[in-house]
Amino acid sequence: MTGKPEDRLDLRKCLAGDSRAWDGFCQRFTPLVYSVVRRILCRGHSGRANVAPEDVEEIVQEVFLRLVKDDSRLLRSFDPDKGKTSTWLSRIAENAARDVLRKPVIATLPLEKAAETPSKPSLSRQALEIPEGILSPREKETLDLLFVEGLTVQEAAERIGVAPQTVSGHKYRAINKLRLYLASRPEE
Question: Is 51 left (phi over 0), alpha (psi -120 to 50) or beta?
Answer without folding.
Answer: beta
